[in-house]
Every structure is written in C-alpha cells, then in structure tokens.
Amino acid sequence: MTSVQSCAEVWLPPDLWSALIGVAQMSYPLEACALLSGFWQGRKLIMTGVHPCRNISPEPECAFEIDPADHCALLRQMRQSGDSIVACAHSHPNQRPLPSQRDKVAAVGSDLVWLIITAKSVTAWVPPPTPADPAVISAPRFRPLLLRREALKDQQRTVMHHETALDQSLKNSQPSQR
What we know:
alpha/beta
C-alpha cells in the first residue's frame, strides 16, 4: 500500500469534482465534510466516490468533525465492496481553499489526503507527518498536490466495457417484439 506521504497527484473525475462542490454549496454557510473512496496506482491517488458526512463540530461555521457513526458505516460498506477510504474533504465557506491553522493541527499524522472545497474550487493536500519531536507540531506544514480533474483513460475504458457488456446482456434477456 502506498503511503499518503509519497502521494504525487490526485485524479478526481469531473462528476466527483461536481459532487464535492455540491456538498459545499448545500452546507453553506457551514463547513461541509465528506470522505472519499479510491485506490492507489503507484504514487497516483484515483478517487472513485464521494461520501458526504454529517459535521458534528460544535463550531460548524469554522470547523468540521466527521460524525463517527458516518465513518463507521462507510468502513463497513467499504469492507463489503473492497474499496478504501483514501481522503477526507471539508469546505471553507468564506475562505480560500488553503489549510487553516486548525486544519494543520488536526491533520498531523493523518493517513488520508485532505481536500479543501470552496463554492468553485477544490484543492488537494498531503497532511503533515507525525513529528518525531513534539515541538515540531507548532509549525506543521501541508504539502500541496497536483489535482487532476479527470478520470484515468483505463478506468473509463473499463467502465464503458462493463456497461457495454451489461447492455448486451439486458438486450439478450428481453423478449423480442415481432
């Protein structure tokens, strides 16, 4: 398994990009949050699903906390499907899509890529690693990631091939109309 610290780029298909923007817009003026499923392909992280979660922060206008019940339910679902949770996302309703000081402290040591959403954009970040020296936590730094707003061509072909085979199967199972 690839470590989040070695991540070089994130691939986010256009429909998932739109879904994240929609989650942020629906929660406005409060912070929205979501978990994302996906898989690693070398140092690329390929996103396959957006899973909105409830924000249970006592200060949802400026902070987020993913509801543990939502997280656990998604983990159970992932166990059955074979997918993995690979990223968390939250919105900054009235700020730029850059990690806040609160984000920097909360993300230290996280094994997930962090996405920050505004009404029109999404940015991707590698969270700070867990420091060997606790004093280093006073100045944690996120590393920005290249975020590609596209799906892998191989992934698209696989989906199209599957749909074609499914369509053919449905056609063969329907009674002919003469």
